[in-house]
Amino acid sequence: MKLSPSILSANFANLAEEVKAVEGVAHFLHFDVMDGHFVPNLTFGPLVVNALRRCSSLPFDIHLMIERPALYAPRFQVGPEDVITFHVEAKDPQEAIQVIRRLGCKVGISLKPGTPLSAIKPYLAQVDWVLVMSVEPGFGGQKFMPEALDRIRKLRKLIGARPVTIAVDGGINPGNVRQVVEAGAEVIVAGSAVFGAPDPRAAAEKLIQASHA
User: Fold this and answer.
1) pLDDT, tens digit (0-9, with 9 covering 90-100), for 29-42
2) How far apart are CA 212 and CA 210, in angstroms?
3) CATH architecture for residues 2-210
4) d(CA 147, CA 102)
5) Which residues, other chains included, contact 213 with Cβ-Cβ below 8 Å and sequence gap of 6+?
6) Fewest CB atoms less than 10 Å from the CB: which of 122, 128, 148, 198?
7) Phi and psi at residue 60, in whole multiples of 5°?
8) What is the predicted pLDDT for the residue at 141?
9) 144: nearest Cα among 112, 184, 177
10) Which residues carry out catalysis?
11) What is the model's pTM?
12) 107-131 burial string, b = 16+ CB within 10 Å, else e?
């Protein structure tokens, strides 16, 4: 299991130090980019994400919860190890895939809990990463939806032999992380379970240990 802590739950008055705290433990750094239209919250954009490049050597996991991903994706500074994920419910999924691929990073696709898995099936041969939401996207600190476990299992079968990574985001903590990994998750996104703790580094280590305890 690889860990991608979400800075949505970090201390925004001290972001650089928060990010440095998980260096060497985390495998990615997750950014929840929201536009206030696709989801009912407004967070941050390319300015903040690109600025943190100077503070971290981790690959960036950029989750675009926005209506027009193809328009905004090129504004992020990315490399081959990074991933930009867009939502299948957003405008022009096929265009988003093409635009993100041209940026030279990995392409991810996500879907809300109420969207059937069949919605992403036409795109599975074109993406590197599927992000399963185990909460309704928009706000951190929500409770994990248990039905996501069966959804992950079904997605694993749907992916088959394709080299596509399954990531899961929402309400994951040391008490349920092993179930999520056993269901088929390869990357765990965790916000409050890491940055909501007094010691984010120790919390990240605990989450990783709990995933295979």
Assistant:
1) 999 999 988 998 89
2) 5
3) Alpha-Beta Barrel (3.20)
4) 35
5) 178
6) 198
7) -95, 135
8) 66
9) 177
10) 32, 169
11) 0.96
12) bbbbbbeeeebeebeebbeebbbbb
